[in-house]
């Protein structure tokens, strides 16, 4: 981002971090928010695969979670939506044992006979098949046209999917050493979760079926992050960037507002002339010019919004065809 000219910025997931293959989206979000706090001022997590606090992580957060779970009531930072969602959906379990087999998707029962493997970069048809399977696993609410699907596949194929596949396999088989390090201070984050309260009784008969969404209580993030904004949405994430862009936008806006209230590094730079404009004073309900001595010279008869005249040579008059108009000939008192 700094090479692009952005000294300070915020980031956001574009879909459910818990449904990302091999946890790529979640690991990238954590790495940016934890390791680059001098430039990444905050991050928007969408359905993050948080784990419940343990006694070794934070004794206070662990005790709050145990009390709320025991009482099954909205207390100590847990809401009734958290209690209801946990009763209906499973808690995410992060597997610390990495394996490149099936690119980290073995827990989703994706071993269908027609599942393409590592030769995706050699076959456009195989890549198209895999895109169709991923879309069906995400379970988008809005149907994609054939043109939309071809466009998505082209965006993966044209740049060359080899690098992305290698990165995917690396994420599925290894854990970076920097991921185990805790930052000196808690990063600021916004969190958006999905309560899953929509009717999900109808399941498609075709395979693969949409993946079952997990639920993490936003309060679980307090042991590692400073949660400055929280959003709850109904239903499941689905293909979020296609179906419900407002969830992403609302989370980013909430995060930005919270950061701008205390951090001035992302404030809009003052435009030239704004200082002079702010020096205008209201007198008796009328706008009068403030004392700008030493700054500019203004005609006293000029209106406040009128620019002062500048001495100098005037430009020749031009007609509509951008040709110079020849000067008028002057007579010297006689005809020739």
Cα radius of gyration in angstroms: 30 Å
Strand coverage percent: 5-15%
Report the major sheet: 4 strands, parallel
Which structural class is indicated by helix and strand composition? alpha/beta
Shape descriptor: globular
For the terminal residues, how far apart are their CA atoms? Answer: 75 Å
Averaged pLDDT, please? 75
SSE sequence, one letter per element: EHEHHHHHEEHHHEE
Low-confidence residue ranges: none
Overall domain count: 2
Count of helical regions: 9
Major beta sheet, strand line-up: 1-2-3-4
What's the β-strand tally? 6
Textual characterization of the structure:
The chain has helices spanning 24-35, 59-71, 80-88, 124-138, 146-157, 162-173, 240-243, 245-262, 274-278; strands at 9-12, 40-46, 188-194, 226-233, 281-283, 286-288. 20% of the residues are buried. The protein starts with 8 loop residues before the first strand and ends in a 48-residue tail after the last strand. The protein is globular and about 55 Å long. The protein contains nine helices and six strands; from the N terminus they run E-H-E-H-H-H-H-H-E-E-H-H-H-E-E. The strands form two sheets. It has a four-stranded parallel sheet with strand order 1-2-3-4, sandwiched between helices. The chain has two domains: 1-94 and 181-269, no CATH class; 97-174, no CATH class. By secondary structure, the chain is of the alpha/beta class. The mean pLDDT is 75.
